[in-house]
């Protein structure tokens, strides 16, 4: 990788057991790694080392993967934990991210609201991807959009997080969305 | 990758890994920030952990989070070590790409990302 190398960060969000780790594992060229990150209250920076005085912080293991896209571009995928107590960490992780991919399980659609709210709040571009499980109900796009209060401009795809040929469409939809709807970029810092 | 026998099992305080350095890490060191090692900088004289960071980064570009995972150290600890290596010129850092509106360069990078993804 030459010195001109650039990284691109994408977050994979969604509720517990929706397939975030599977998605990261499928797309990653390396065995997914885990890093221990400091979990803080919302908006706080994570760089202090004084463990003893920070009673309200703790650490959380975060899975991530890597995909070299070209000689110069490497994509990092971070599986963001879905539980509300990790929101502070997810907000920090959103800084510097290209966008987010929200995974949805049609057996519990509403569980993905939380991730969408976080992305909306951060004004980060995102794509919603239904991760199909065997036996999970199939709904029309119109029904899903209605359930998730998504407008027509927001991309919605279906994928199988276990298959790279399918999983990649979530990322493609996200990048297309960012590329062809530049008004969303006005919000990124 | 050599597996560390020095696992962080709650017995070693974070500041031990930083050599007692408690000065804050640089801001803006993202988990996906790429680290580039300067092969011209001597690694002799570096403490064990900074030296391991250099050894990891010398063969190619790695991100802050990869360094943390390979060294089995928490992200905040690695950020402190990396900050000192940036100060000394051993490493240089590049923050992740964030597109800006109406920038031709941004569109070019995004198109490259798209083309690469479509080939997967």
Automatic annotation (TrEMBL), chain A:
Pfam families assigned: ATP_bind_1
Keyword Transmembrane: no
Keywords: GTP-binding, Hydrolase, Nucleotide-binding, Receptor
Protein's name according to its UniProt entry: Signal recognition particle receptor subunit beta
Molecular-function annotations in GO: GTP binding; hydrolase activity
Database matches in SUPFAM superfamilies: P-loop containing nucleoside triphosphate hydrolases
Presence of the UniProt keyword Metal-binding in the record: no
Protein source organism: Nonomuraea fuscirosea
InterPro entries according to UniProt: Gliding_Motility_GTPase (IPR052705), Gpn (IPR004130), P-loop_NTPase (IPR027417)
Family listed: Belongs to the GPN-loop GTPase family.
Automatic annotation (TrEMBL), chain B:
Comp. bias regions, Basic residues: 1-10
Entry-linked Pfam families: DUF742
InterPro entries tied to this protein: DUF742
Annotated region (Disordered), positions in chain: 1-25
The protein's name: Uncharacterized protein DUF742
Taxonomic source organism: Nonomuraea fuscirosea
